Amino acid sequence: MKTTLLIKNARQVVTSRGTSEKPLSGEGLQELTVIEDGAVAVSGDKITAVGPTAEVLDKAEPDDRTRVVDASGKVVLPGLIDPHTHVVFGGSREHELALKLQGVPYLEILARGGGILNSVEATRAASEEELVRNGIKYCRQMLAQGTTTAEAKSGYGLSTEAEIKTLQAIREVDRAQPIDLVPTFLGAHAVPAEYKNEPDRYLDLVIEEMLPQVVDRKLAYYCDVFCEDGIFSEEQSRRVLAAAKEKGLGLKMHADEIVPLGGAELAAELGAVTADHLLVISDQGIEKMAAAGVIGVILPGTTFYLGEDHYAPARKMIERGVPVALATDFNPGSSPNNNLQLIINLACLYLRMTPPEVINAITINAAHAVGRASEIGSLEEGKKADLVLFDAPNYDYLAYRYGTNLVSSVLKNGELVVEVK
Ligand code: NIG
Ligand code: FE
């Protein structure tokens, strides 16, 4: 197999290995392979060798057509994976900052018709092309910061037409730029104004009209629901998710973020792939998720931006065996950040996760959270050549510096798509 690209002399090549069957949990979440003076050989869009530079050079037999990337002084990681985003939406919500600073709570802004419902208006008003243009812009920002795969939710349309438009836009954004997007249908993100006080009637529409179209047109892999006080109850969430499961979609949940409603328990009962947020998860919820193998996707950027004083109990979740992943939750309201590097800092500082745990949580466990662990999430022979090079002497440095983009190159499907000179 001809080596088309070779990365050599990296200070560290850092990855989990042999972990594509099951997400990492407990002590296992710490496990990283660190190769000093490391190299990665690539043929086409696949990794063909990973190891010390001398060994890889021997094996890879580069010729004068091989592109060689000198990674001296750099740390190489698998391309970062962001397993929870709302990257396609209309408008923006900077005007809500003033309300927030006056102390108006997040759910109160929504109850007044703002918040998610404000973005729903803007998303409905936007053309599909406009949504695609914005989505591409946000994805390019993410790519420049090291993200090579991301989950992407609908949920700002909340009508059949606008939900389908959003999912089509997600598909188009996926095609139009390097980041791979994994689409999730989130028709049950909020109750739209025209169904105010009739959430069950709105869910009839989600289940009877939207869901069949989404599935028939193969527009999503997962179905998600915002299980929250004043949004959808545990009972209502169960209805949506059970219907989606029956139609063959994987399940995700916005669970136990602000008020504990038993979301984690429900995720475990239904065999969801992930339950996300989990700031107020109960001990029982933790036990059930661990037993059922539901991945807890923690979103510390949202907690930070909402100014909450308590973060998800990550240490407890890890100790009790919940496989943990991390994501940005990029969205126009509660988390207008799409940079996973900032999530590294927040996870270390506020979730008390160690740098190895965090790296696994945004690579291999994030790959499991989007159902793609056999293809991405670690640097192993046969996996996709999605890699990121950081201008850093070691991986701890990524958790130590903050607010500066440390990416020097990004490789997607074996091609250099970002190069910082
Ligand atoms: O994940 N929690 C619900 N949904 C989003 C926020 C959406 C918004 O405020 O626009 C979230 O935080
Ligand atoms: Fe979210």
What's the SSE blueprint?
Elements: E1 5-15, E2 33-43, E3 46-52, H1 53-60, E4 67-70, E5 75-78, E6 80-82, H2 96-101, H3 106-111, H4 116-125, H5 128-144, E7 147-153, H6 160-176, E8 180-188, H7 199-216, E9 222-225, H8 234-246, E10 250-255, H9 263-270, E11 274-277, H10 283-292, E12 295-298, H11 300-306, H12 314-319, E13 324-326, H13 340-350, H14 355-361, H15 364-369, E14 387-390, H16 396-400, E15 407-412, E16 415-419
Fe (iii) ion binds at residues 84, 86, 254, 329, 331.
Overview of this protein structure:
This protein has 421 residues and is of the alpha/beta class. It has 16 helices and 16 strands. Strands 1, 2, 3, 4, 5, 14, 15 and 16 form an eight-stranded mixed β-sheet that branches. Helix 7 (199-216) links the parallel strand 8 and strand 9. Helix 5 (128-144) crosses helix 6 (160-176). The two termini are 30 Å apart. The model has no long low-confidence stretch (mean pLDDT 97). Bound molecules: N-(iminomethyl)-L-glutamic acid and fe (iii) ion (FE). Fe (iii) ion (FE) binds next to loops.
